[in-house]
């Protein structure tokens, strides 16, 4: 009887509940999608390689990029001079390696500077509207009415061309100015869309101040397009810098610059083609890599854009 009673009163024990799977964050999804894109991975690998070359240029370059050697002018590529020498006897490989530092410094710095200026302008114009929006956007329209290269040239001719650090600073500022409207218009459009969401209206109804709403709820939702635009803009900035140097209003010699080396050696394209091909190829592969990585990053952040 006891066994029957105990068996009849037995209660089935339910199996333990499984822990719910963690939801994947947006950045984890982006990283996973990015790894599936061979072109984006290739672009990222090349970009990282170029950044490392720029950082360790003093170690990688076999010679000084500004040292003249009258006894070794127009040397063909060899074991001693891997990419040959120019009309002044300067080692081209050393100039290409150190030129990567100049191009990447200007490209990355100008984009960061343009973001720091353009994003606040776009936020103010989109969030507050009215006279702020009209004034800021009309100023951006004036800048956009000029071709990028032409406006950069106008800005550069206002200053005395110099070499070295200050030459790089001037070119960085000129390139940043012509890129500011890109971020101002981009962020303004995003803010206009986001500020109409219900959770933004709820935050304001609860008494949250505008700076807090902007920093905690609006700006984080603008990061993805800013990152994509910034990555793609580095390629454009490098082209603008090379164009300014090619035209003689950018970084001045003897500071190594791909654009200046291309200009200085294009006259010898038939006798010594490697002198012009090397800086030209450096510009090409750098711009291509940033574009491939930027396109892959855009698709990874928003697969609907494919």
UniProtKB/TrEMBL annotation:
Question: Which InterPro entries does the record cross-reference, listed alphabetically?
Answer: BP-dependent_transpt_permease (IPR050366), MetI-like (IPR000515), MetI-like_sf (IPR035906), OppC_N (IPR025966)
Question: Which residues are in coiled coils?
Answer: none
Q: Which Pfam families match?
A: BPD_transp_1, OppC_N
The record ties this protein, via CDD domains, to: TM_PBP2
Q: How does it sit in the membrane?
A: Multi-pass membrane protein
Q: According to its UniProt record, which protein family does this protein belong to?
A: Belongs to the binding-protein-dependent transport system permease family.
| UniProt-recorded name of the protein | ABC transmembrane type-1 domain-containing protein
Per UniProt, which keywords does this protein have? Answer: Cell membrane, Membrane, Transmembrane, Transmembrane helix, Transport
The protein's organism comes out as Entotheonella factor
Respond yes or no to whether keyword Transport is given for this record. Answer: yes
- Membrane spanning residue stretches: 40-61, 102-128, 140-159, 165-187, 218-240, 274-294
What range(s) does the ABC transmembrane type-1 domain occupy?
100-294
Query: Top-down, what is the taxonomic lineage of the species of origin?
Result: Bacteria, Pseudomonadati, Nitrospinota/Tectimicrobiota group, Candidatus Tectimicrobiota, Candidatus Entotheonellia
- One BP term from GO: transmembrane transport
What GO CC annotations are associated with the protein?
A: plasma membrane
Subcellular localization is given as: Cell membrane
